[in-house]
Structure formats: structure tokens, C-alpha cells
Amino acid sequence: MSVSALAQLADAKACPRLVLKVGSSLLVEGGEVRAAWLTSLAQDIAQLRAGGQQVVVVSSGAIALGAARLKLARGGRGSLADAQAAASVGQIALAGLWSQALGAHGLIAAQMLLTLEDLEDRRRYLNASATFERLLEAGAVSVVNENDSVATEEIRFGDNDRLAARVAQVAGAHAVLLLSDVDGLYDRDPHGPGARLIPRVEGVTDEVMAMASAASSSGLGSGGMTSKLQAARIAERAGIALAIVNGTHRSPIAKAIASGTGTLFVPQRNSTARQAWLGGRLAPSGVLTVDEGCASALAGGASLLAAGITEVARNFVRGDLVTIHSAKGDRLAQGLVEYSATECRAIAGRKAGEQAGLLGYAPRSAVVHRDHMVLL
């Protein structure tokens, strides 16, 4: 059984394990915590737990809280150094808030701070998965945030929407619930005339992406509807449902479930654990562009062969993640490459019989083998 309606987000049979994402603008206002709202959300979580569900929380707010305490300009986002300092102070406060709010219902909060590299590296990903599993077995509610005190602009998730989708993968969750400042995805700017809420999405296409605004209305957070749709893409490829509901109300989960108001993104695939990890990775080291014939072969389940490569971008080494693009620039797939960038450039467009002389050794069976590749 899988999640096919909003009401099933609170159904332990359809959704035994749920990831809940809370943004900065919902949790923090004017540098202060919305205490009454957090209390009502903790009650929602306690009700889910009482119904037999396991819950993981992805919570923003550390930078906003720390910036207020340090009196930093622009909410702590004026520079990378400010953001890191604000996160260092704010994370302590954030963890305490969740511990107190959940503790009022007899629930134990466990803090987990993750970096992009923790989920990009396969071994570290599996370590994180084991930690989540043990905490959930022990009855704890993991409260996750990006480790902004050490994250850099180049190596980071950048928003907690995509982090939530990745956490759902690593934690083996069945659905993700993103609390937003709007009711869900609209077919245009929700503040404009005639905007229509879309209750269900069967696959995040380019047309769906075009409906989104990248802006974050509060100015506190780093995401907007675009980041939420990117999160939905990560989730749906891994066979995980994702929903966007309005989180501004008291008891936002109970209210959304009761009213049935929101947008549900239905899973499109049920990838293997390794494919889900590959498809969810966010920091490829290079790009391989292929011709039309190769693109068709990949869609049919073939491995990537050197003969179909027309262009190699950036520098990478064997075993790195690369993205495969069509001649038009569309993202087709990503996977682990069997050659360095230099070697790929040497054999690009060449048939197997020519490659040994160019490489100086017998060529491998593929540049990216289908067992180490996922279609996007």
C-alpha cells in the first residue's frame, strides 16, 4: 500500500514513516519562536505517533534564531561567515525548542546535522541510514537540519526542501510533508487572479516546473516553490510520495488532513535503494553530452558507450558522479563514470576497436554502466 491521497499521510498502514519539513518563516517571526504554533505542531506529531507512525522532522530556523541573538544584519545571510556563525548559535536554541516541545508529549528528540557530502558519499549515506533506523526503532523523533556552521556555498543542499527529500530516502520513509506558506502548488502566482490549486500531480514535468516561483516570500528561508518541486522530483523517482500543505495555521497537519487541502505528488517509480541514492545526488562532478541515437539507447535501458558521447565538460575522476545530457541540454540520466574526464575526451565518439590504442589499455565495457546509472 502506498500514499495516494492526503488523508493517508496520517494512516500508519499507508505511511508507516513520514518526514515532516518545517521552514524558518513558520517557526521564527521577528527573531522569536512562534511558541504557540510550535506547541500545536508538536501535538500533531504526537497524534501521528499515537496512531503508530514514525516521524522524522527536518527543521529550519537555526540561522534565523542565531542571527537574532547575535544581532546580525539580513537575518544572518549577509555573508557565508555570518550564516555559519548564526547557525552555530541558533542550532543549540533550535534543538532545545524541539526537545522541549516534543518532550511535553513524552517524545524524545534526537538531533542530526547533515552536510551534502554525508548523503553524496555512499558509505556515509549508509552510515546515516543506520543511525536513522536505530533512532526510529528506539522511539526517538530525529530532528534534522543542514550543518550550516560548516557548509560552504559550493557544497551544500541550499534549502531544506531538497534535504527533506534526501532524508526520506536515507531514512526509508514513505512520504514527505512540506509545510509551506501557501495551500500547495498553483497553476500560476497564487496571489494573482484566477490562480487554481492543483490537488494532485502525476510526475513533475517541465510544464509543472514552469508553474513555480523561486521566491521565498518571508525573506528568512532559502527555498520557494521551485525548491519544493525539485524535492518532489527526488522523492517521486525513489517511490516516495510528497505533499505540500499550508503550515501557517495552528495544528497544520491536522487541519490539512481534515480539509484535504494541499498538493500531493504521486510516486512515479519504485527504484532500488542504490538507484534512489544515485537519482537523488545533487552534486555531479561532470557532464557528458550524447547524440540522439545514444539518448534513445539510454532510454531503452542501455549503458553509456563512448561512441555516443559528443562533449565532455568539467574535470572528474573514475567513480565520480556525472550527469548525462542530450544535445539540447536536457538531463537524461546520471551515474558513476568508469573513466576520468581526460580519458573520456580521448575516446569520445570512438568505437570500441579504436579505444585501446587511445587509452593504452583494454577499454572497459561502458563509460557509465547501466547498473550504476539512473534515468532522470
Main sheet: strands, sense, barrel? 8 strands, mixed
Based on DSSP secondary structure assignment, what is the total number of beta strands? 15
Q: SSE order in H/E notation?
A: EHEEHEHHEHHEHEEHHEHEHEHEEEHHE
CATH class of the largest domain: Alpha Beta
Q: Give the distance, in angstroms, between the N- and C-terminal Cα atoms.
A: 25 Å
Order of strands, widest sheet: 5-6-4-1-7-9-10-8
CATH structural architecture of the largest domain = 3-Layer(aba) Sandwich
**What share of the residues lie within helices?**
25-40%
Pairing-aware structural class of the strands and helices? Answer: alpha/beta
Q: Mean pLDDT, rounded to whole units?
A: 92
Count of DSSP H/I helices: 14
Radius of gyration: 22 Å
The fraction of residues in strands falls at 15-25%
CATH superfamily of the largest domain: Acetylglutamate kinase-like
Q: Into how many domains do the coordinates divide?
A: 2
Morphology call: globular
What do these coordinates show?
The protein is of the alpha/beta class. It has helices at residues 24-27, 35-50, 62-70, 80-103, 116-120, 122-137, 160-170, 206-209, 225-237, 252-259, 273-280, 292-299, 341-347, 352-359; strands spanning 17-22, 28-29, 32-33, 54-59, 109-114, 141-146, 175-180, 200-201, 241-246, 263-265, 286-290, 309-313, 321-325, 331-336, 373-375. Helix content is 38%, strand content 18%. The strands form three sheets. It has an eight-stranded mixed β-sheet with strand order 5-6-4-1-7-9-10-8, sandwiched between helices. A five-stranded mixed β-sheet has the order 12-11-13-14-15, with helices on both faces. Strands 2-3 form a two-stranded antiparallel ribbon. Strand 13 and strand 14 form a beta hairpin. Helix 3 packs across helix 4 (80-103) and helix 7 runs antiparallel to helix 11 (273-280).
